């Protein structure tokens, strides 16, 4: 029983460390954690423990945390990034292995023979175990990333079965349980997408997303935005400009469906209105990358022009090359959406974007959200 409690403590410490590094340093934090956890895992694998009448390596919890860190990166960056993590794990293991074995070969002093002998027995004569643990990490990392995408495909298949369930000859109770299971799965997916939104440039939904999932995500987004509706804007002027862009360019999509399809505007909105959102507006411009627009590629003749570009670089190019002061009369991009964004970027940059979120306790300044009954289904603010 004591072993189980201690293993749980090990897992808690590992996940707290991983979470703190990810919150603070994002991708770089997860890379750092992976390097540290790989070295610790190689050391802890030397000890075996008895848990529930089964012999297990001590570093099992650390190894699982590495897989979770890699899956987070895979979600944000794509499965191609897994290859970089495989290299990181391999290099971390080999470098630590070389240092441990080289230090064991160095002749010890006679001052503390017992400690030196213990050190040599741990770090010098376990080459086979180190290599086995490294190979296990590499294989499980690769398989974990592939399994992640298989589950993603499976999710879409499960959603298709929800349509078939209506035509199947099953009782209503079974059908409701199945639908509740699917909704629970989608709620977890939505929460994961929101939590990793700042590091991702992918939309939460697209044209291939099932209709039921779109409707559920719209409801979840409304509930999510209502969590901070009692607060005032960080910047009322910029928030108003964002709302104008959403209304102007959402076309036939409803207000919330357009935000789900346009993660950049959703992040801009959260950076202004969500007191817990850690990225500033300029951070959003800097992190979010898109495929370089054709009009930029055609007009900016540079040899090293990237296929993907951050919105911050994109805005700087537009401003540098003579973007107009009004969103409807640009003579550079001929793209009203980019022109509108450039105006927001210039406004945020001119204010140095040094906003501190302050709650105003005066009753007449306090505002709340209310769901509009019109077709736009937009959250509106009322005094």
The biggest sheet amounts to: 2 strands, antiparallel
The N- to C-terminal Cα distance equals: 57 Å
What Rg, in angstroms, do the CA atoms define?
26 Å
What structural class do the secondary elements suggest?
Answer: mainly alpha
Query: Order of strands in the sheet with the most strands?
Result: 1-2
Q: How would you state the average pLDDT, rounded?
A: 75
What is the β-strand count?
6
Domains, number: 3
Name the helicity range: 55-70%
The number of helical elements comes to 14
Order of helices and strands: HEEHHHHHHHHHHEHEHHEE
Low-confidence stretches: 163-170, 323-333, 353-383
Shape: elongated
- Please report which band the strand proportion falls in: under 5%, 5-15%, 15-25%, 25-35%, 35-45% or over 45%: 5-15%
